[in-house]
Amino acid sequence: MAHAEKAIDVNVPLRTAYNQWTQFEEFPKFMEGVEQVEQLDDSHLRWRSKIAGKLEEWEAEISEQVPDMRIAWKSTTGMHNAGVITFHRLNDSQTRLMLQLTWEPQGAVEKIGDVLGVVQRRVKGDLERFKEFIESRHTETGAWRGEVHQQHAENPQASSNP
Predict the structure, then answer these.
(1) CA 9 from centroid of its chain's CA atoms
(2) Does the predicted model carry a pTM greater than 0.90?
(3) CB of 103 closer than 8 Å to CB of 2
(4) Using one digit for the tens of pLDDT, what is the confidence trace for 111-123?
(5) Which band of pLDDT confidence, cut at 50, 70 and 90, is reported for residue 22?
(6) Of the candidates 83, 85, 81, which has an alpha carbon nearest to the alpha carbon of residue 66?
(7) 3-state class of 97 per DSSP?
(8) Residue 72 contacts residue 83 (beta carbons within 8 Å)
């Protein structure tokens, strides 16, 4: 498994940064290679992205979402990946986003790209473009303030509170 860990400070309030990050269908506006993200329901997403020049599609499940704190996810089909983003209030007008991502490189091209740090640079660039996107707007394009809690064997249904 490959791993990336990056942080960035954005000059917007925590609530604004978090609210914007919940607008998954806006990700193609600042994430390199992401062509489409479709929100299927409160905790499921369908992704289409170009990775190492190849079109990849997968579905992901949000395993935990706590407003203004964190969003965690894992792929359920296609390319294996998982991650978490946390939001940290620095002051009334600044927020630190910390992103951790793991993935399984597929094939020689992706494995070479991993060794060369291609995904690390892409993640850094995506966070920088998010910063430019949200700071230029000064407001979010929308928000979802519901919660998703980790699923447990005795309770296989995700719960949400819109």
Answers:
(1) 16
(2) no
(3) yes
(4) 676 666 778 899 9
(5) very high
(6) 85
(7) strand
(8) yes
pLDDT for 105 beyond 80 = no
Amino acid type, 111:
K
Helix (H, G, I), strand (E, B) or coil at 75: strand
Q: What gap in Å lies between CA 131 and CA 30, rounded to an integer?
A: 9
Tokens, residue 27: 């990700």
DSSP SS3 for 113: helix
Structure tokens at 124: 């850094």
State how far the Cα of 122 lies from the Cα of 127, in Å rounded to an integer.
9
Burial, 16: exposed, middle or buried (Cβ in 10 Å; 0-12, 13-18, 19+)?
A: buried
| φ/ψ (deg, to 5) at 18 | -60, -50
* The pair of three-digit structure tokens given for residue 134, joined into one six-digit string: 């949200």
